[in-house]
Amino acid sequence: MIRTVLFDMGNVLVHFSHDRMCSQIGALCGRTGYELRQSLIDSGWQWDFERGLVTPEEFHAWFELQFKTKVDLQKLAHAASDIFTLNKPIVPVLDELKSRGYRLVLLSNTSVFHYEFVSQQFQVLDRFDDFVLSYQVHALKPQPEIYEAALKKIGCDAPDCFYTDDIPQYVEHGRKHGLDAEVFTTVDALKHQLSIRGIHLRNGVVV
Question: Taking a C-beta distance cutoff of 8 angstroms, is the pair 141, 105 a contact?
Answer without folding.
Answer: no
